[in-house]
Amino acid sequence: MDLCGPFPDVAIGGHRYFLSIIDYYSRKVTIYPIKEKTEVFKHFSNYQKMAERFLNSKVINERTDNGLEFCHAEFQSYLDDLGIKAERTNVYLPQQNGVAERYNYTAVYAIKVMLNSSGLSKGFWAEALLCHTYVWNRVCHGNQSLTPFELYSGYKPSAKHLKAFGSTAYADVPKQLKKKFDMRAKKGIMVGYALKTRGYRIWLPNERKLVETINVSFDEDNILEPNSSGAVLDPNKRTINISSNSEFNTESEEESEHLSIPRTQKSQSSEEEGASNNSKTSEKVIWERKAVPRKDRSRTDTYYYIQGSKDRFHCYKDIAEYCKTHNLEYDKALFNFSALRTPQADKWHDAMKEEIQVIKERKVWDLVPKPTNGKIIGCRWVYTLKQDEKGVIVRYKARLVEQGFGQIQGIHYDEIFNPVVDFSIIRMCFSVLVCKQKWRHSQLDIKCAYLYASLQETIFMSQPQGFVDPNKPDRVCHLNKALYGLHQSGREWFYEIHSVLENLSFKKLESTNCVYVYQDNVVLLLYVDDIVLFAKTDTLIKDVIKCLSTHFDLKVLGKTRKLLRGRI
């Protein structure tokens, strides 16, 4: 028996050590990942009782080194009471406990290889260790013709169910938990074998949790690339244990400017065949991205290919005109290429100045000399028209956005997912709290919310177009705060407001996402930078708004009329 650790990387569950107990006759290994050395006695006691019952034989002696975790009075008294002989090695002679020491050396080496070949982070060392031990007990060693498992238990184990560590796994979702349009399986990573049931241990990256299931299929040919630091994030960093189907797509700079529908020879022929058969199909606008070589780009005119049923392809310089003609809606923030060439250019310039002023007030960046070996990420302006319920323009909004597709995973960002309140929870609160219990409600908007959140990584950005410092034109922006467009901005903002709400004595519900309560009198729902407040009285709502306004620049919208482009 031997203890190995502490390891510099904390494993899932907070483990920093592992205890290996080896049956001398069969060489069967039992592993216990542990957090503290004080847990050694408890695990040995459990193992001793389990082994004696399974083998119907008593433990005669145990051999360890002179570590204090094995030699303290309580441990020794326990051994004496049961008549178990304690064998100790001489000082600085670990080879006298060679069976356990050799296995620990082999196990640590195996962990390195398994993590490197699978692409998993070092936080999965305990899972790799348990998986290695499981397989170790089921293969022959040295000149033995029987496996440790067979020598220990008396029957030959099966190896048909063994799978490659780190391979892609698809865990079936039980029909009791599946909704109408849910996927039948969740994609995960095989990290071991179930400890107390028959099945496998699957790590679900999106939900950031381990599940044990036997209803799983594998793709053993699909394993993460070695040393892909961002492929599977560290499980022990700030985690949010919720489900997410969001996909964050990164794209190269060559794919970011033109919008078009790629046309291959095959797709053209299929379109020509379908045009004659589907003449009555309702017209639908489809926008897709297509990589355009830099040398073929035109900086003066931008065209958009719009697919319809009457005419297969139309080419418009002004997509807004097309949408207006055909009574179609479009996202105004996407098509801002010529905003500064319109009659409203002065209003857009004022909006840009307002944004820069907020950035300066919150000290979003510092101008520093351009680093010699650091990547400089670009930025751009995005323009949006804010309208009221009647469609009247109330504000011209300009936002400086980082070109996040230039970020490198593992260097510029790590964790990216952030939770939001489910819309079904919002409906339920209005139904129960407002309609039935007659609570008051109000909607708040936090201005430039992301700019409150601090960044953990070092990121350099070019100075924004139109606002380059004339005295320092060669310098770049070293970001201090989470600018819009960064992959991790939403997550950092969530932790910022979560910390503020906790300091204000709000309690987050564990059963759902982004729902906070205060003394059963106030319920706060959070959807990124939108807040919906429910309280028993108007006074409570005013008090909460007053407290939040000391930390954030709030815009009080009054009673909730419209949220997330949906009317309440």
- What topology, given as strand order, has the largest sheet? 20-21-22-23-17-24
Q: How many domains make up the 3D coordinates?
A: 4
* Major sheet description: 6 strands, antiparallel
Shape: elongated
Helix/sheet category: alpha+beta
Distance between the termini: 64 Å
What is the total tally of β strands? 26
Percentage of helical residues? 25-40%
Question: What average pLDDT do the residues reach?
Answer: 80
CA radius of gyration is 31 Å
Distinct helical segment count: 12
Which residue ranges are poorly predicted, with pLDDT under 50 across at least 5 consecutive positions? 227-231, 239-317, 330-337
Report the β-strand fraction as a percent range: 15-25%
Description of the structure:
The protein is of the alpha+beta class. It has four domains: 2-153, 2-Layer Sandwich (Nucleotidyltransferase, domain 5); 167-223; 287-334, no CATH class; 347-567, no CATH class. It contains twelve helices and 26 strands. It has helices at residues 40-55, 68-71, 73-82, 98-118, 125-136, 148-153, 265-277, 319-325, 345-361, 423-436, 489-503, 538-549; strands at 2-4, 17-22, 29-34, 61-64, 85-88, 167-172, 185-193, 200-204, 209-213, 216-223, 304-307, 313-316, 365-368, 376-377, 379-387, 393-402, 440-446, 460-461, 476-479, 507-508, 515-518, 522-527, 530-535, 554-558, 562-563, 566-567. The strands form eight sheets. It has a six-stranded antiparallel β-sheet, sandwiched between helices. The radius of gyration is 31 Å and the shape is elongated. The model is unreliable at 227-231, 239-317 and 330-337 (pLDDT under 50). Keywords: DNA integration, DNA recombination, DNA-directed DNA polymerase, Endonuclease, Hydrolase, Magnesium, Metal-binding, Multifunctional enzyme, Nuclease, Nucleotidyltransferase, RNA-directed DNA polymerase, Transferase.
